[in-house]
Structures are given as structure tokens and as C-alpha cells.
């Protein structure tokens, strides 16, 4: 406001007037508001921190102020007291409202728009009320403005734009104080998406309300919606006028734990995974309940659907295309929904044609590499005489949608068509592929199983020194162990309990595998032995080593395919789904239930929770459900989720952070002299080297944030919302592991920094490293078969002759069928796609509405700059010929942790959240 300026003098802030100031009643009121806001915001910070971090009013935020204006006089305390005694003056402030509109509406929505246009004119409109941070001394309740109606709603209903701006005028009096909340009542028939509200006209400057929420009609939800300003408040700092609203909003989000949830609800609650099966459709589709004493598992979002007819403990299914409930604001926004729906359409079209062909043709396996190549060259236009028998609609789809039916060439064969065949590429992907988190340093040779010997028999491995000695470059086995030259990918213990059951299924065969690698003098790995186990007995185990003839070459290739199948299963079911998607869901549910949107920690976590509940819901419906994509296309079939649940028994949150995980796997040791406090056992480990850069940047940013709001550890211990969030995440969300002694405490800043850094790492970089390479690496089925249909034949097996006569044909009949392969390719293509509205690490949409704390916004820009510097460093590494695991002839650069990306399948980009 013209005439007002803030100055710092002797460590304290004073308000000054320019020469042009006049002491009118309105001016005195405005100065009073400024003084009240400054005193409140600065004193509460000074009480908790010796630094003046509470400065909320800057010269720039006071409209019309000039840095060149010279002050005439200081507004003294006496003058303030005189002005505050004058009679309150009523004046007008304006709200600017941004509503995000749908690009496409169905008939019902269009009809309701017309109804709302009419009823808005006769008084059934959108009503807002401003709520002050102050209490009215007479009513002992928060001060409120007069109710106000959004202007020109019906006039602007025909505007064809993504965002429409409305205005609303509020009448308040001069002792109103500063607005801290707004209530919105939607008397229309239809919901609308309220993006932001900005209130202008108060002396303290514009007040921002980041809403980003669907506002439901009062016919569905009669209570007023509450939105808070962007000013962060710890619970004890909450202004008197907002305390009741803070609790009321949290109560609304928690619900009462009963009833069937409507799609328009905003209730966050917990349930077990009791909706994966569909016993009403047959015993083959019945699945156990995951979560509870019998099968421990994280909790998911409760929907409250009625039980099935055949099993009262199972929740009834909702099959696609009908939606499953998630809290309304967690559902995909239109851009995201369109991207995902386009992917699903692509998946349908990809699979419609081959499924019809498969039903007509007697033989529908890939016959050789040429058939796989045709998927990228010609699409699904298979040149068979039987094609003429297909319905005309299929021909029309094929003719009009050849681009859709054609698969993009996966990155793994884009540079070098035969790279995947080589052992060095097989080993390189253990460090820089889609699943770089299972490799571990071998500490004991031969390796020993950790399975219960009373249940699973002898724990000894079939690996012997004579299997590997010739590959150790002149070293003894003991010397290779001591010099950290031996590494292993061990899927023995996770698969062995399921092997017999899987192999009893039709068309599915597996081993429990171990693969040994040697770290060569060039810094690259080479596979030196593969152990294949069908049971614990020695007679059921065999060891294969690199080939020395044509026959052993094909045997070795089949062994690598079985390792790839094991790897694909553990990657998808454990590392990807369990450790990022499922394990994070309880923390997200508890955050919405226990921490106000005003809470600084909620504001920090909010972008890292976006879309996760929505994508997890879709996964329960179509991917991990009984008969879903994962069961159809992965070797374990109906035992897929069983493998995931078995892994959860040994899951530990305290080891989910990158440094702790690397140390646990023996891939690093603590070394304070190193930039990140770790020394890697393999220096050229792209996932680890890039990941540590991002981990450190996140940790630094989080530490700055936590220190700012919690300068004293007592503030953490006494923060009831923060402690309730963490306690509920463990005791309810991870109830089956709640008694474990490894859960980090939450008693000081270091504890909180580790917990938050781990959550942000998992939601952003860890998920990106495991997700966005699925099509680039797995879109070429021979490189990474998710399903194997045959075991490797011995010379005494009846199938050995078939293998011997045509090993290539045998190899392809062992891999997924045409239908299985193309179905998976279409799905992982969708899962690897970035949406145009993706928000990447270091980005915040509209930072000014994210936090009302200027110091934190400035710190975030520092974090963003560091993320950009990391991207430049990754680009530099990918062009360094000394780093052979990411640079070389035909070698793919490692970009999965490069922070930014264009939309689409790019094999790079780190979104803020688990959003796909």
C-alpha cells in the first residue's frame, strides 16, 4: 500500500510512513493490520528460534511501496493505540478465483452445466466466507466476513479455456485481522475443481489459498469446504481463529471408518488387501487376504465395498472400466487420465488383434527373432492366410490404426540389435538396468541359504570352487572375496518356497536362481556361474558356467533367460510394487488423516504423494489382481502376490534409504573422506553414483527445512500432528510389523530428516529408477522374459532331441507366447510413459502458493538449482569413456536418474511422486 514501508532497525522491525501518508481512518486500519500481522508472525518464530525467521511482510508485498521513498515518521505505539480505539470501518476486499475446467464433458455433465447456469441466476450459487486468524472477543469465535457470491458464473460458463478466472467481493470491517481460511459452499448440481483463491486488499498484502480440490455440491456433501492460506503453521502456532477449523477439517478427512465410500468422498482410511480375488467368479480367481497375522502386508485405502457372495471376508470386486474409490482429490486429473486412458486404449488395440489371431492359429509362438522384429517394423499386421477369416472390424482397426498397433523399438536394441545376447550386457544391466538393486557383494563362498532348514532342507549351495576358479584372472577364491571381486544376484530364497507350486501350473516353469559375477580389471562385471535349483536336495540343483561350444551357448542363453524371469518377478513384485507403491500408501493415508494442510511437513510431502493412491487403486483392479496382467504375464502366476508378501516379512524401513541399502548389500562401506560418506565397492555403478547425488540433495534440502521449523528437538517430540502421523503410519498402516525394533524413532531433527528423506527418495528417485525403463529394457522380450514356459532339457529328457535339432525354436517356445508378450509390452509401454502434467524433482507448480514462508521458498530454489546441476553431471558421466557401464559402442547411457524428461517413453526423468 502506498505510504507504508517496513524497515529493520536495531534487530527489530518498525512500520514507517512516506511523506504522502495521511492518517485517515482507513489508513490507520491498514497500518493496524500490518502491525498485527507482523507482531504475530515474528513473535511466534522468535519464541522458537533466535533468528527472525517469522518475517512475513516484505516491502514488495505491500502494494505500491517504493524502495526509494524516504520515511517521514515512525508509527509509534501511542499512535497505534489511538488508532485502534476508533470505530471499525467496513471496507471491501476482492477475491480472484481460478477454476479449472474439463476439456471434455459427457452428456450428463453438459446437462448439469445448463442447470447450474440457470439456478445460479436464482440464488443457488457458490458462496464463500473469509475466516480471520483472530477471535471475535464478543462471540469467542473466529471473525468472519459476510457471505459473498462468485460473480458472473453463468456468464462465463461458455468460455472454452482450461482455466477460468472469477471474482468475488467480501465486506469486512477494520478489526477483521488477517484471513487464514475460506469456506466454500457449492449450491450447484455439479462439482467443480477449485485451483486457487487470492485475496487482495489487505494491508499485509495478497493472501494466497492453494486449493487444488474438487468442491462437491451440497446435495452430496452438505458441509462447507474449508481451505487454508499458504501460511505454514505447526499445531502450537495455529492462530486462535483457525484452531477449531484445523481440527474440523482433519475429522472430515478421517471419517468414521464405516460405510461404503462414494466416489465424491474425501475420506482417507485403512483396509487390508482383501479385494484382489473374485471368488464369485470361480475358485480359480479366489485369492487370500493380504494384511494380517496370517499374511503380513501393508494396508491400502479403504473403500468399504460389500463382501462377496461366497466369502464374507472378501470385498466385492469392481471391474474395469468402472472406477474404484479413492478420495476424490487423489483421482487422476484430466491430463493424466487422458494419457493413461490413451495407454489403455493402445493396450487394447495391441492385444485385440493378436488374441484373435491366437484363437485361429494352431501355433502362436514366436518362431524366431524375425517375428519379434516384425512387431517394431510392421506392427501386428501378421501375414497369415487366416487373417482373411477375422471380422471386418479388425481389418478396419488395422488399416486405420497401424501406427497405434505398431510398437516402438525398445532402447535396448536401438543402438545394438545383438547387445542383449552378450554376457557383458547381461552383467551391465545388473548395475545400470531396470533392476539395479538386487546385486550384492559375495561375503562367503559358497553362498548359504537363509531358509529354515527344517522346512526347506539343506542350506548348502551346489556352487564349488572348481566352477569359478578359471574365471578369476589368476586369483584364488578367497583372494577374490577379500578384494571385493565377487558379486551375486541371489533369487534362491525368495523363489524356492514357490518353485514346486509354480512348476505344477500349465505353461509355467521356473528355477530358484543364483548368479555369480566377477569384477574384472576393466571395472566391468562378467557372469561366471548360474545355479539353478528346483528343490533343496543336491540332485535338484545344477550349475552352469559360460559356454565353450554351440550347444552350451544355447543352454547358457536359456539359463540367462530363467535368471531374467526371476529378476523380472522380483523387480516387479518386490522392488517396484511392494517397496515403492504399497509401502508408501500407509504414510500417505496417515498424512492426510493426521496432519493439517497447514502443517509444514504436510506441505513438504504433498507433491511426493500426488497420484499414488490413484495408481495403486488401478493396480489392484487390473495389474496385481487375480487373473490380472501380472499373473497372466509373469512366471509365478497366481503366486505373484505371495512372493511379494513373503518379501514384506524381511522389509525394513530403516534400510530403505539409499546409503543404508548399499551398505546392507555390501555395495558400499562407510568412509567419511568420500563426498557422500560412502565408498562404493564397484566404482562404476551408475544407479548408485547418480542416486547418491540425488539422495544427498534431498537430504540437504530436508535438513534445511526441518531445522527451519524445528530448531529445538522438543518441538518435534511435542508436535501432536507429526507424532500422530508417524505413529499411525506404523501402528495401523504397517500394523503387521509394528512391533519391530528397527523402526526409526522420531525424537529429534536427525530422526525426522532421515524419515522424510527416505520417503521422498522412495517416491521420486527410487521409483523412477525402477519404473521408467520397463519398456526400454523389457519391451524386447528375449532380453527380459517375464515368463518362462519350459525348463532347460538334460540329455536324458525327451525334449532334448527337439532342443538339439532346433535350439532357436526351443528357445522361443520357452519364452512367452505372442499374446503374452504383446500384452505385457503394451502394459509396460503405458507404465513407462510420462504424462504431460508430470511434476519432476526440483519443480513445484506455483511456488508462491506452496509456502507462505519466503525463506523456505528461497531454500527450495537452491534445491532446484542443485537438481539441475546433478542433471548436467549425469550427462557428463554418460559421455565419459572410462565409465564403461554407461558409455561405449552400443552401450546405453544411464539416464533413469536424470531428473527431467519430455512426455512419453524416454527412459529418463524423476517425477516427484509414484504417479504411474
Uncertain residue ranges: 1-85, 382-390, 400-404
Report the sheet with the most strands, covering strand number, pairing sense and barrel closure: 5 strands, antiparallel
Count of DSSP E strands?
A: 23
Percent of sequence in beta strands? 5-15%
Rounded average pLDDT: 87
Helix content bin: 25-40%
Q: Helical stretch count?
A: 30
Rounded Rg = 31 Å
**What structural category characterises the helix and strand content?**
alpha+beta
Distance between the termini: 46 Å
What shape does the CA trace take? globular
List the helices and strands and how they pair.
Layout: E1 4-9, E2 12-18, H1 25-48, E3 71-74, H2 77-84, E4 90-100, H3 107-121, E5 126-135, E6 142-144, E7 148-149, E8 163-173, E9 179-186, E10 192-200, E11 207-215, E12 225-228, H4 243-254, E13 270-271, E14 300-301, H5 334-360, H6 369-377, H7 392-400, H8 402-405, H9 411-414, H10 423-432, E15 439-441, H11 453-456, H12 465-468, H13 477-482, E16 486-490, H14 492-503, E17 512-519, E18 525-533, E19 541-544, H15 550-594, H16 600-605, H17 612-623, H18 629-633, H19 640-648, H20 658-664, E20 668-670, E21 678-680, H21 686-709, H22 713-717, H23 720-733, H24 749-771, H25 774-778, H26 800-805, H27 807-814, H28 818-831, E22 833-834, H29 847-850, H30 854-877, E23 904-905
Antiparallel strand pairs: 1-2, 2-3, 4-8, 4-10, 5-6, 5-7, 5-9, 9-12, 10-11, 13-14, 15-16, 16-17, 17-18, 18-19, 20-21, 22-23
Amino acid at each position: 500500500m502506498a505510504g507504508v514501508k517496513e524497515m529493520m532497525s536495531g534487530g527489530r522491525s518498525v512500520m514507517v510512513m512516506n511523506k504522502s501518508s495521511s492518517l485517515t481512518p482507513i489508513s490507520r486500519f491498514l497500518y493496524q493490520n500490518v502491525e498485527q500481522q507482523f507482531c504475530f508472525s515474528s513473535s511466534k518464530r522468535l519464541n522458537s528460534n533466535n533468528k527472525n525467521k517469522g518475517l512475513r511482510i516484505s516491502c514488495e508485498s505491500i502494494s505500491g511501496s517504493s524502495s526509494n521513498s524516504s520515511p517521514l515518521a515512525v508509527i509509534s505505539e501511542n499512535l497505534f493505540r489511538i488508532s485502534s480505539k476508533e470505530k471499525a470501518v467496513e471496507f471491501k476486499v476482492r477475491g480472484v478465483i481460478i477454476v479449472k475446467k474439463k476439456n471434455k464433458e459427457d452428456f450428463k455433465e453438459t446437462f448439469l452445466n445448463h442447470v447450474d447456469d440457470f439456478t445460479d441466476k436464482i440464488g443457488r450459487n457458490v458462496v464463500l466466507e473469509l475466516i480471520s486468524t483472530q477471535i471475535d472477543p464478543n462471540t469467542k469465535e473466529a471473525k468472519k466476513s459476510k457471505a459473498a457470491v462468485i460473480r458472473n458464473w453463468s456468464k462465463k460458463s461458455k468460455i472454452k479455456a482450461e482455466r477460468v478466472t472469477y471474482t468475488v467481493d467480501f465486506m469486512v470491517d477494520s478489526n477483521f485481522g488477517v484471513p487464514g481460511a475460506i469456506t466454500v459452499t457449492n449450491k450447484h448440481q455439479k462439482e467443480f475443481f477449485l485451483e486457487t483463491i487470492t485475496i487482495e486488499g489487505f494491508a499485509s498484502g495478497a493472501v494466497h489459498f492453494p486449493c487444488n480440490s474438487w468442491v462437491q455440491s451440497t446435495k452430496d456433501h452438505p458441509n462447507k469446504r474449508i481451505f487454508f492460506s499458504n501460511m505454514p503453521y505447526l499445531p502450537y502456532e495455529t492462530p486462535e481463529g483457525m484452531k477449531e477449523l484445523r481440527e474440523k477439517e482433519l475429522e472430515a478427512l478421517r471419517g468414521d471408518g464405516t460405510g461404503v465410500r462414494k466416489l465424491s468422498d474425501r475420506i482417507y482410511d485403512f483396509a487390508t488387501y482383501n479385494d484382489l480375488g473374485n471368488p464369485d467368479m470361480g475358485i480359480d480367481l479366489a485369492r487370500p487376504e493380504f494384511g494380517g497375522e496370517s499374511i503380513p502386508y501393508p494396508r491400502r485405502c479403504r473403500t468399504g465395498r460389500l463382501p462377496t457372495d461366497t466369502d464374507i471376508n472378501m470385498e466385492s470386486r469392481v471391474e474395469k472400466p468402472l472406477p474404484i474409490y479413492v478420495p476424490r482429490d487423489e483421482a487422476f486429473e484430466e491430463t493424466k487420465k487422458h494419457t493413461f486412458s490413451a495407454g489403455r486404449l493402445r493396450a487394447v488395440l495391441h492385444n485385440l488383434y493378436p488374441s484373435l489371431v491366437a484363437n485361429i492359429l494352431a501355433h502362436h509362438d514366436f518362431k524366431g527373432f524375425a517375428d519379434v522384429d516384425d512387431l517394431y517394423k510392421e506392427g501386428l499386421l501378421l501375414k497369415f492366410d487366416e487373417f482373411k477369416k477375422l471380422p471386418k472390424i479388425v481389418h478396419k482397426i488395422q488399416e486405420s490404426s497401424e501406427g497405434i498397433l505398431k510398437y516402438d523399438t525398445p532402447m535396448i536394441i536401438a543402438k545394438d540389435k545383438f547387445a542383449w545376447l552378450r554376457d557383458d550386457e547381461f552383467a551391465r544391466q545388473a548395475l545400470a538396468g531396470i533392476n539395479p538393486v538386487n546385486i550384492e557383494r559375495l561375503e562367503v563362498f559358497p553362498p548359504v541359504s537363509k531358509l529354515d532348514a527344517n522346512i526347506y532342507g539343506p542350506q548348502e549351495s551346489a556352487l564349488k570352487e572348481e566352477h569359478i576358479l578359471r574365471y578369476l584372472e589368476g586369483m584364488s577364491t578367497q583372494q577374490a572375496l577379500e578384494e571385493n571381486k565377487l558379486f551375486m544376484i541371489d533369487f534362491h530364497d525368495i523363489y524356492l518356497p514357490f518353485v514346486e507350486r509354480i512348476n505344477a501350473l500349465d505353461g509355467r516353469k521356473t528355477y530358484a536362481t543364483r548368479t555369480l559375477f566377477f569384477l574384472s580389471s576393466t571395472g566391468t562385471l562378467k557372469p561366471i556361474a548360474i545355479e539353478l535349483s528346483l528343490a533343496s536336495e543336491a540332485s535338484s540343483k545344477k550349475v552352469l558356467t559360460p559356454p565353450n561350444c554351440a550347444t552350451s551357448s544355447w543352454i547358457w542363453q536359456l539359463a540367462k533367460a530363467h535368471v531374467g524371469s526371476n529378476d523380472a518377478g522380483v523387480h516387479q513384485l518386490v522392488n517396484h510394487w511392494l517397496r515403492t507403491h504399497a509401502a508408501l500408501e500407509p504414510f500417505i493415508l496417515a498424512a492426510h488423516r493426521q496432519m493439517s494442510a497447514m502443517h509444514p511437513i504436510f506441505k513438504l510431502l504433498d507433491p511426493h504423494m500426488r497420484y499414488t493412491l490413484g495408481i495403486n487403486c488401478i493396480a489392484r483392479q487390473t495389474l496385481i489382481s487375480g487373473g490380472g496382467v501380472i499373473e497372466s504375464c509373469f512366471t509365478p502366476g497366481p503366486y505373484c502376490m505371495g512372493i511379494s508378501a513373503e518379501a514384506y516379512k524381511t522389509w525394513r524401513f530403516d534400510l530403505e534409504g539409499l546409503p543404508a541399502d548399499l551398505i546392507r548389500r555390501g555395495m558400499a562401506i562407510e568412509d567419511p573422506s568420500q563426498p557422500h560418506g560412502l565408498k562404493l565397492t564397484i566404482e562404476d555403478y551408475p544407479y548408485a553414483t547418480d542416486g547418491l547425488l540425488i539422495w544427498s540433495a534431498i537430504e540437504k534440502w530436508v535438513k534445511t527445512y526441518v531445522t527451519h521449523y524445528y530448531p529445538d528437538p522438543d518441538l518435534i517430540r511435542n508436535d501432536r500432528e507429526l507424532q500422530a502421523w508417524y505413529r499411525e503410519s506404523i501402528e495401523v498402516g504397517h500394523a503387521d510389523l509394528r512391533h519391530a525394533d528397527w523402526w526409526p524413532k522420531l525424537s529429534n531433527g536427525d530422526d525426522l530428516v532421515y524419515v522424510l528423506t527416505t520417503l521422498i527418495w522412495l517416491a521420486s528417485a527410487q521409483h523412477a529408477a525402477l519404473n521408467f525403463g520397463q519398456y526400454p529394457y523389457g519391451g524386447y522380450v528375449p532380453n527380459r522374459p517375464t515368463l518362462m514356459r519350459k525348463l532347460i532339457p538334460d540329455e536324458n529328457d525327451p525334449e532334448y532331441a527337439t532342443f538339439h535339432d532346433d535350439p532357436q525354436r526351443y528357445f522361443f517356445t520357452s519364452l512367452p507366447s505372442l499374446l503374452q508378450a504383446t500384452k505385457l509390452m503394451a502394459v509396460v509401454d503405458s507404465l513407462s510413459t510420462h504424462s504431460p502434467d508430470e511434476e519432476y524433482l526440483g519443480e513445484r507448480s506455483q511456488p508462491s502458493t506452496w509456502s507462505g514462508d519466503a525463506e523456505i521458498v528461497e531454500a527450495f530454489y537452491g534445491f532446484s538449482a542443485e537438481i539441475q546441476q546433478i542433471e548436467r553431471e549425469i550427462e557428463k558421466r554418460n559421455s565419459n569413456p572410462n565409465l564403461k557401464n554407461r558409455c561405449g559402442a552400443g552401450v546405453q547411457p544411464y539416464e533413469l536418474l536424470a531428473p527431467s524428461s519430455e512426455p512419453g517413453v524416454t527412459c529418463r526423468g524423476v517425477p516427484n511422486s509414484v504417479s504411474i
